[in-house]
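Shipment paperwork, digital attachment
Item: protein structure file
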Amino acid sequence: MTTIAQSTPTALGGPHFGGLTERMAAWREEILDTEPSVCVERAVITTQTYRDNADQPLDMVRALMLKNVLERMTIYIEPASRLAGNQASANRAAPIMPEYAVDWVIDELDEFAKRPGDRFTISEEAKQTLREIAPFWRGRTLKEHALALMPADAKRFYDLGIIHPEGNITSGDAHIAVNYRRLLADGLATYRRRAQEALDALDLTDPAQLEQAPFYRSLIVVFDAVIAFAHRYADLAEQLAAAETAPERQAELREMARVLRVVPEHPANTFHEAVQSIWLVHVALQIESNGHSLSYGRLDQYLWPFLREDLEAGRETDASATELLTNLWLKTFTVNKIRSWSHTRFSAGSPLYQNVTIGGQHPDGSDAVNHLSYLIIASVAQAHLPQPNLTVHYHHGLSDNFMNEAIELMRLGTGMPAFNSDEVIIPSLIERGVVPEDAHDYSAIGCVEVAVPGRWGYRCTGMSFLNFPKALLVALNDGVDPASGTRLAPTCGHLRDMTSFEQVMSAWDSTIREFQRNCIVLDAACDLALEHQVPDLLCSGLVDDCIGRGKTLKEGGAVYDFVSGLQVGIANLGDSLAAIKKVVFEDHAITGAQLWEALQSDFAGEGERIRKLLVAAPKYGNDDDYVDDLLVRALRHRHR
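Attachment content:
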């Protein structure tokens, strides 16, 4: 049994959940006091790998890149941690990934430490290193290829910032949870064997099958690389144990070494092994692509069998298991990502949306909450961090006791957990062709998105943030962008001349159709660039059924691979439509011309009176059918 100090009542988790153990509390403060920095190790190793292997198929180049990074990067084990695995040369350091984009990196090098928020320290030596490798990447990056694939008409929307996929052409895609349940049951050695068997079965006289050979060879490379990565940490743990004078910590380090020689290469047998396995693979995935929203899936479902057996055998207690979970959350929080300032200013706080899902139902409809579900809530409360995100599957059969625990967590002000309704999501997935068993197994894989873990391709939503309020302004201005004077949609009339609200909706209809068409074009350009420039071999290998199909995720290897759209300003659109309908066309308090002039003057002078009228109109989010129905109607225009 693992022996640990008991949790303290000086609670970030409040009196209800209690506090972290002494060592976790001290380590948490250390991490929070750590200034985010820039790490260039991955950038240097990646550049060298691409240079040295220019004659290799791209899949193999990407596999060798990950292999070389995992072999050469700095590794360490924190004195308080029972888990091994780090993303960069220091905790909270963000690696630079040059194959995605380097232009903004070079442009902003001297500004990273001066930002008003999301600041990153960077040494002069690191700056010089990045300036030296940048010329190699000119013409080779994902961003450059994606921009080149964008047709001129569609690219206008990107250039004007109206439809903006910036985050998806400057870093990895992600928004995914791999098949951790299968990983724990099989181990990477089994995945490697499956890839080798698929490679051996190819008929290389068939050009289509010959084309698959590099994919399978690359999978073997990355599976071996992650296994070797674990063994590096096992060696380090043994070295630290030999130098450790505290018997309890020495025993922990020796146990860590033992665990790391088992997982993730082989199936997990204990709760500690299972948690270590998923963490090491999670961090390797972050190193591979650093796409945000790499998520853990339904953690309470696939980890509970391990914990239940350990509790029964006396290998773990609730206290030791909770500490290991808080250890996992602290490690998760050490992962960091640096974005361009144009992206950062709209997503401040370095969010990574690494989501954990708990609760929900079994395929037979019975409640899936278990003892681990409660421990996860308690551990998230005790850690009191912005990462990972926590999501609860809500359904009518959820017990009051569990719901109350979730509410107690919400009371702490972390904004967690989020709630996803099984009654809405499961039927919606089934309606779109997801088999019922998989539909019940959905999980959060981003800030709000859901997908089936381990069986869905990257990102179930689109890549381009479509700005709804901007689209409405264009619709009210006869299809012309008021800011730039660029025509972006067919002529549809001007608000000054409209005599009915139906004319407003007609203008919205024609405008949003054109915007949505261009959004799809930009999404497709980004998707093609990601497929052709930065295939992710490890992530593909861990999602069903890329190995069976012989395809990467972007090539269509996943069981499910369809997307919806991605919009911003949905509530603002509803509020705007309600205000226009009520104030202009129902109450006749002002004319369309007066409203337009107030908008153009930012409500100066007489505009203040108009602003107050608009503010008093019905607002979205208040269970008011007046505005809700308008928004539903507007969204249906987009989908028709």
